[in-house]
Amino acid sequence: MGILLDEHSRILVQGITGTEGSFHAKACKSYGTNVVAGVTPGKGGQIFDDDIPVFDSVEQAVKETAANVSLIFVPPPFAADAITESIDSEVPLIACITEGIPVHDMIKVRRHVDRSPVRLIGPNCPGMINPAAQCKVGIMPGAIHLPGRVGVVSRSGTLTYEAVGQLTSLGIGQSSCVGIGGDPIIGTSFSEILQLYDNDPETDMVVFIGEIGGSMEQQAAEYIKNHMQKPVCALIVGASAPPGKRMGHAGAIITGASATSKSKTAALRDAGVTIIPSPADIGVTAQKILQQIG
Amino acid sequence: MKLHEYQAKEIFSRYGILVPNSTVAHTPEEARDITDKMGGRAAVKAQVHAGGRGKAGGVKIVQTSEDAYKFAKSILGKYLVTPQTDDQGVPVNSVLVEELADIETEIYIAITIDRDARSAVMIISPSGGTDIEEVAQSTPEMIFSEPIEPVLGLMPFQTRRMTRQLGLEGSAARDTAKLMMSLYQIYLDNDCSLLEINPLIITKDQKVVALDAKLDIEDDALFRHKDLHELRDRSQEDQLEASASDQDIAYVNLDGDTGCLVNGAGLAMATLDVANAAGAAPANFLDVGGGATDEKVAEAVSIILSDPKVKRVLVNVFGGILRCDVAARGTVLAYNRNNCTLPLIVRMLGTNLEEGKEILRNSGLNVIFADTLTEAAKAISESR
């Protein structure tokens, strides 16, 4: 099983003819992902990488190929349009990789997502992967993943790879990995992903990687305290960040007491979460929990 | 991107918001002449990108043009250290000389983005003129916030509610409500991340005037505001941070002595935490980004090396889009260009790892390799 993706996922890539879109569409395909369509306005009728038809619109792509997941690589000025185009065609799952979308755009897009029957992952995220289903919808290096029973959720890209790398090197596989994105306004929160993992029979525990900025980690702690059945271990990065400075991610900025790593770590500890002491200890902490739950 | 008060007030004026008569002065002589024209009394205000300037001595009410000259002379060309700057402060290159107003009431008003509500929010308080964080601490009941539904925008009934909360009546209430609508329009038109007037005043003759103005534009939206680019004042920014941002490198200057080059913001933050825990505090945050070339990595390492605090460099790269060989070549390039002999600790993983290691081994540089974050922490600790 795993979450969000499975053997029936049919991927369409928006921005498939761009530099990033074409590189990653090929990488997803060679991982085993069922990439069924590409969309680039004005390039409809082309064939990408021997067998992927390119369409002018998402509407046409969905009609012709029954695509049910959108993966978006469209540049920031056009990303809000691309996301809403997939919403319009009711593509149930949309992952937007694009970094640098203006927050004013995302405020409106998120409102639209909230009243639509779709789920948006990101933006500014690495995407998601289900190793057992050989389905990769994102930019993560596929080779570091191993099928297994640990769910990973994170706001970051490379730090997620670091976490997965540590798990895999200890022989610990992943049921799914999801990067929810480093922007201040994103489509899906930690709590929603935690809930999916809690309900997934193939997931035994969750590795949770948060960072400074906002209060989404506190909301997740609240969720874990009140609802979560499975064990969670968590790492919050950014303890060394000075207040008021944007640490790369648009969302990683300390703007108040709740945005600090200290406050987030405390909330998670209170919720019964095992705190990962250092970024170097992600794998070993998960290993200990797995041994405890047998 | 932050704007200066005088730049923000120019934008305010265009939207019909009243601001006091004022002129920017770059020399003490100009400050004196402008004050003369205003009749000898004025407020002289340092133009810096930092809050808390009043407390830091950056604002003075002068009673004669000679006083204006003296005050301008005492701060122009100097660095102003406020509670919101670092110890070095920010340079004062200009002052705003402004007509004095007859203040009856001081109000706080701002628009910012509420991440939890995922919308803009207007924040108001009848306790204007003071530090709003202090008001929030001591008398939170004096702060009101009004979430703005993004599709509808700010609605007139909301502005009426807020003027009631502010205790305003008659023309002052009507004009303040109108100002709120203008402020929201400015926020939309300029992709603001923060708009703040503190204080907004009601004068004795019931005029509603913005006595101060703060306007921050979201960096990610600058691509659609080419006209605003020229308003950027680089002198107010950390110079290393400014040159990094020119190269599209996310860099933040910190206090320690371990220079850090990482790909990805999350891994970069994690790397700083690891360095700190190893007792070798980071000199910087640096995310070189995914699509970096040899040259961009070299530029990034050069920025790190141009910081005199740096005593060792830690490169931590998880090769994916950025390949290890590219990171290695760029690093060697920068070390050679700068004739650098500082210890170099390298932890690389992923795409083209062996090629990257080979480049570093053959570089003649003193490279300490680490395979894991734990080993990297040990290596930086030992290099102290």
Describe the structure.
The complex is a heterodimer of chains A (294) and B (384). Chain A has helices at 19-31, 58-65, 76-88, 103-114, 158-169, 190-198, 216-226, 261-270, 282-293; strands at residues 11-14, 35-39, 47-48, 52-55, 69-72, 93-96, 119-121, 127-130, 135-138, 147-154, 174-179, 205-211, 232-237, 274-275. Chain A is α/β, with parallel strands linked by helices. Chain A has 2 domains: 11-121, Rossmann fold (3-Layer(aba) Sandwich), CATH 3.40.50.720; 140-293, Succinyl-CoA synthetase domains (Rossmann fold, 3-Layer(aba) Sandwich), CATH 3.40.50. In chain A, the strands form 2 sheets. In chain A, strands 3-4-2-1-5-6-7 form a 7-stranded mixed sheet, sandwiched between helices. In chain A, helix 5 crosses helix 9 (282-293), helix 6 (190-198) packs parallel to helix 7 and helix 7 (216-226) runs parallel beside helix 8 (261-270). Chain A is globular and about 55 Å long. The model of chain A has no long low-confidence stretch (mean pLDDT 95). With 384 residues, chain B is an alpha+beta fold. Chain B folds into 3 domains: 1-20 and 102-236, ATP-grasp fold, B domain (D-amino Acid Aminotransferase, Chain A, domain 1); 21-100, ATP-grasp fold, A domain (Dna Ligase, domain 1); 238-382, Rossmann fold (3-Layer(aba) Sandwich), CATH 3.40.50.261. Chain B has helices at residues 5-14, 28-37, 65-75, 132-138, 156-165, 170-189, 226-229, 239-246, 265-277, 294-305, 324-337, 353-361, 373-382; strands at 22-25, 42-46, 59-62, 79-80, 90-91, 95-98, 103-114, 119-125, 144-148, 192-203, 208-210, 214-217, 250-253, 258-262, 284-287, 312-319, 344-350, 367-370. The longest helix of chain B has 20 residues, at 170-189. The relative contact order of chain B is 0.09. The mean pLDDT of chain B is 94. Chains A and B meet through helix 4 and helix 5 of A and helix 9 and helix 13 of B.
